[in-house]
Design brief:
Elements: H1 2-31, H2 37-49, H3 56-82, H4 85-99, E1 117-122, E2 131-138, E3 156-162, H5 166-173, E4 182-187, E5 190-197, E6 200-207, E7 210-217, H6 225-237, E8 247-252, E9 262-268, E10 271-277, H7 280-289
Parallel strand pairs: 7-8
Antiparallel strand pairs: 1-2, 2-3, 3-10, 4-5, 5-6, 6-7, 8-9, 9-10
Helix pairs in contact: 1-2, 1-3, 2-3
């Protein structure tokens, strides 16, 4: 009986050592991953558990892991405190304004529906006559033209394209003029005209050299009139850039996260500027902000 008892006790002890050794390996793997606060906390907890084995080597690794975790948490806290969303936006916009100083870039991009940190990606700065800027809204600050944005979804864009002639630029704006259909009072003395085609309804009107149209899907039961009236009311107190000679605004009543859903396009001589945004009213606000 005594031999049997000793054998069982030895077997249990060996199994316990093997289990502890497995936790030690997990701690080493966890300590190498410190990208987020959650992972750092997990690493710290795992490291404290692995201080239980009696070997001095395991204790040393746990101590090192705990120190590195605290350092990572400290750096993350400093980064959040020193780079607020407002400071990030100011840095990004200033950098873009400097890079493309010949043009008035939009200054109002984020909305209440987007994340707080603004960033952007651009085409080559060397080509000042033809360039494009994609804007992003993220939960954490990212530098302009960081490769990380390649895997992210833009919320809006600003593009400048130069044509050979003014006529070619005007044609590229693709201004839509159609005064047919049912007349609708949009307020402020503006009358729109609505007609349907291919499962959608289009409500269009004119303000100066600008033609505006709101598209609504009949299949989804959407109505163009509320957005059209909201746009008219906003433009009564805000001023768009003056097209030379034509401008086209195309808005969509449906809600989408596709940044190409809404567009503001206008001509200035041989140059065509295009703004796109997933939010209809913000597309207008972006265009207005180019005058700031």
């Amino acid at each position: 009986m005594k031999k049997t008892f000793l054998y069982s006790f030895t077997l249990i002890a060996c199994l316990s050592l093997v289990a502890c050794g497995g936790k030690g390996k997990t701690a080493e793997s966890s300590s190498q991953t410190k990208n987020t606060e959650k992972t750092s906390q997990t690493t710290k907890s795992t490291s404290e558990n692995t201080t239980k084995p009696s070997t001095s080597q395991s204790s040393t690794k746990s101590s090192t892991s705990s120190t590195e975790t605290k350092t990572s948490e400290s750096k993350a806290a400093v980064k959040t405190e020193t780079n607020t969303p407002a400071k990030q936006a100011e840095t990004v916009l200033n950098q873009l304004n400097t890079a493309f100083s010949k043009d008035h870039l939009p200054q109002a991009i984020l909305t209440s529906r987007t994340a707080e940190y603004l960033t952007a990606a651009t085409t080559r700065v060397a080509d000042q006559a033809n360039f494009r800027i994609l804007y992003y809204a993220e939960a954490n600050p990212i530098e302009v033209n960081d490769l990380a944005v390649n895997d992210l979804q833009p919320i809006s864009s600003f593009e400048k394209k130069t044509y050979d002639t003014n006529e070619a630029a005007a044609s590229a704006v693709n201004q839509l003029i159609d005064n047919g259909g049912e007349p609708i009072d949009l307020g402020y003395g503006i009358t729109g005209h609505q007609q349907g085609a291919a499962g959608s309804s289009y409500l269009s009107w004119q303000e100066g050299n600008w033609r505006l149209v709101v598209r609504a899907s009949n299949i989804g039961g959407e109505v163009a009139e509320p957005l059209a009236k909201e746009a008219v009311a906003y433009l009564e107190k805000a001023m768009l850039p003056a097209p030379q000679n034509v401008g086209q605004i195309s808005l969509t009543a449906s809600v989408s996260d596709n940044y190409q859903t809404n567009s503001v396009v206008w001509q200035e001589g041989a140059i065509v500027y295009t703004i796109q945004h997933f939010d209809a009213l913000q597309a207008l606000k972006m265009a207005v902000s180019t005058k700031e």
